[in-house]
Specification:
2 domains; Cytochrome c551 peroxidase (chains A, B); 13 helices; iron (chains A, B); Di-haem_cyt_c_peroxidsae (chains A, B); about 5% strand; homodimer; Cytochrome Bc1 Complex, Chain D, domain 2; two-stranded antiparallel ribbon; mainly alpha
Chain lengths: ~350, ~350
C-alpha cells in the first residue's frame, strides 16, 4: 500500500509552471484532472461489502449517530466529535471525551468517509462498520461496552422495533455489531456532491484563475501523488515527513501512526493520506490537529512530503483551489429519539 | 407570585372519586379541563416583548443554538444540554459542562419554554433572551465571556451578514445581546402541538379510560393548582415540600431555590412549578434530577405538595395521563455552520 515509488516519480521532472490563462489551458487542465480525480456522486452508495443498504438501516443509524446513550455518560454521541454541522468533525485539535479526557488524534470528517479505503488515521478499521465500534468503547471517548450498549438499546421498545425492521429475519437483531452496521448505513448518506471543483470537472467554468493555477500546482508539484481519486486522499498510506520531518508539535514522536497497527518498522509515522474533500471546513489539520491555517498545512506538506519550499503565492493558490472542494451536505432532520425506560442503564459520570 | 392560597383552596373539599365511565363523563371532564388548560398552538408566537420575530432572526438563532463556538471549549452548544432530539433536555441528573463540571440543577426543556412566565428553575431570567445569556457565561457550563463571543462571531463573515439581516438598521449588530435575541427567536419555534391531550381538549376521543381517570385525579387531587394553563406549569412559584419535605437526595438543603433570587425568607426552597408538557421525555425529574421514574415523581408530589399518599393505581393513572402531554416536535434541519477564520479565537480546554 506504500506509494513512495509513485510519490518519487512525481517529484521528478517538474517543469517551470506557466499561469493558466486561456480557455484552452483550462480545458487541458480539466482533461488532466479527469484522469486523476472523480466527482462525489449525487446519490449515496446503495450497498456496502456487497450488502444492500436499506432505508430502515439508514433511519436506525441516524438515531444511533445522534444518540448520546451510546456513551457511558449519556452526553456524547457520534455527532459530538463528527458533527454534521461543522464539516463532519469537531474543529478542535484532538477530541474531548469521557471525563474531559483528550483523545490522541484529530477527529476525521465523517463526510464522504464511505469512499475511504479504510478508517482512522492509521487505517486500522477496514470499513465504517468496524470504525463505529471503536469510539463507543474507547475509554477516552465514549467509554462504553458492547454489553452495556446492547442492554441500553434492548431496554427501549422503539429501538427494538427499529432493529427488527432494519435487520429482518434475525432472531436477536439488537446487537453491537448491528448497531455499527446501522451507523455505517447512515454514514453512507453523508456525502457532499456539488463542489465547485466537481462542476468544473463536469465541464462548467466554476474555477477562477487563482483556483485553476492552484489546481495546476496541486497536480504538477506532486500533491496529487497522495491526494487523488474521489476523495482527494484516503486511499493509501504514506510516511509523514518523507523528505523532511515537521516539528514535534505537528508530528509528535510518541504517535508512530500505522506502526501500531502493522508493527512493521517501515510503517513508523505512516498515516493514511488525509482525504481533502471539505478541507476548508475541517481545521485544525493533521493527525495532531496543531495547524489551524490551510495555507500553513499546504506549506508543511510541500516541505515535508515533496521537498518544495512553496512560496506564499503558490501556497495561496493551492489553498484557494482546495477551498473549491467543499460540497453540499445533505439536509439532515434532527431525529427525535425514543425515551429511556426503567430498564435503561443510568448514565455514569 | 406565590400561590399558596390558591394551592390551599384546592386541597379543601376533595370528594371521593368515581371512575370515568361514560361518554358523558368524558365530556364533562373535557369541559372542566377546558377551563384549566389550553392547547399548545399550532404555530409559534409571532412576537416577543411586543417585537416581531423575523425569519432571519430564527435562522440566525438556529445557527447559534447549535454552534459549539459559543463555548470556551468549542464543544458545548445550547443543544448539548437542551437537545431537540431528547425532549429538549439532556436526560441526566444535572448537566455536565466545561471541564466535565456538574451544574447544580437539572436542565429544563427548551420545548414550549416560550410559554413560561420566566426562565430557570428559580425564574431568575425574565425571558428566553435573558436566559440565553446565562449558560454561555456560567463557569460550570459554557464558561465563555460576552467579549469573546462577540469576537468569535465578528470573525466569521457569514455570521456578520446573518446578524445584519436579522437586525437591520443597527450600526453594530454583532452583539452578545443580539445573540441572545436570535436564540430566543429560534426557541419560539420549539413548540410541540398535537399532543393526544390537546386533541382531547379539541373534542377528539384520544384518551383511554386509564388516562381519563388520571386527568380526573390530576384535577381533583389538586395537582392542577400549580400545573395548569398552556404549559401545565411554568407560571408561578411554590415551595417544594409545602406539606412534607422530601428527602435530601431529592431536595438538597444547600439549594434554596428562589431565595437566592429574591433574598426573601418565604422564598426558601421555592421553585417555579415545572411545566409538564412532554414530561414523559424529560426524566430525570425535579431540580435535583434525582428521580428517574415518572410514577415516583407523581408520588413525591402527592405527598410533599398535596399531603396525599396516592396509591399505586392512582399514581399509575396520573402518570398515564401525563404521557398524553407529549406533542409533535418541529422538523429541525441540522444547520451547516460557517467555518472559523484566522481571526476566530481558538478553543481553550
Amino acid at each position: 500500500m506504500h506509494a513512495l515509488t509513485r510519490l518519487a516519480s512525481c517529484l521528478i521532472g517538474l517543469a517551470v509552471l506557466a499561469p493558466v490563462h486561456a480557455a484552452s489551458d483550462a480545458n487541458a487542465l480539466r482533461n488532466t484532472a479527469k484522469g486523476l480525480f472523480q466527482p462525489i456522486p449525487d446519490t449515496p452508495p446503495t450497498e456496502v461489502r456487497g450488502l444492500a443498504v436499506t432505508e430502515d438501516q439508514k433511519e436506525l443509524g441516524k438515531w444511533l449517530f445522534f444518540d448520546p446513550r451510546l456513551s457511558r455518560s449519556h452526553i456524547l454521541s457520534c455527532n459530538s466529535c463528527h458533527s454534521v454541522g461543522t464539516g463532519g468533525a469537531d474543529n478542535i485539535p484532538t477530541s474531548i471525551g469521557h471525563g474531559w479526557q483528550r483523545g490522541p488524534r484529530n477527529s476525521p470528517t465523517v463526510y464522504n468517509s464511505v469512499f475511504n479505503i479504510a478508517q482512522f488515521w492509521d487505517g486500522r478499521a477496514a470499513d465504517l462498520k468496524e470504525q463505529a465500534m471503536g469510539p463507543v468503547q474507547a475509554s477516552v471517548e465514549m467509554n462504553n461496552t458492547p454489553a452495556q450498549v446492547e442492554k441500553t438499546l434492548a431496554s427501549i421498545p422503539q429501538y427494538v422495533d427499529a432493529f427488527k425492521r432494519a435487520f429482518p429475519g434475525e432472531k436477536n437483531p439488537v446487537t453491537f455489531e448491528n448497531m455499527a452496521r446501522a451507523i455505517e448505513a447512515f454514514e453512507t448518506t453523508l456525502i457532499t456532491p456539488g463542489a465547485r471543483f466537481d462542476k468544473f470537472l463536469a465541464g462548467e467554468n466554476t474555477l477562477d484563475a487563482e483556483e485553476l493555477q492552484g489546481l495546476r500546482l496541486f497536480v504538477d508539484k506532486g500533491c496529487v501523488a497522495c491526494h487523488s481519486g474521489k476523495n482527494f486522499g484516503g486511499q493509501a498510506y504514506f510516511p509523514f515527513g518523507v523528505i523532511k520531518k515537521p516539528g514535534a508539535d505537528v508530528l509528535p514522536a510518541e504517535d508512530k501512526g500505522r506502526f501500531t497497527v502493522t508493527n512493521t518498522a517501515t510503517d513508523e509515522y505512516v498515516f493514511r493520506a488525509a482525504p481533502l474533500r471539505n478541507v476548508a471546513l475541517t481545521a485544525p489539520y493533521f493527525h495532531s490537529g496543531e495547524v489551524w491555517e490551510l495555507e500553513q498545512a499546504v506549506a508543511i506538506m510541500g516541505s515535508s512530503q515533496l521537498g518544495h519550499e512553496l512560496n506564499d503565492k503558490e501556497v495561496g493558490q493551492i489553498a484557494s483551489f482546495l477551498r473549491t472542494l467543499s460540497g453540499n451536505a445533505p439536509d439532515i432532520v434532527y431525529p427525535i429519539l425514543p425515551p429511556s425506560t426503567a430498564a435503561t442503564p443510568k448514565p455514569q459520570h
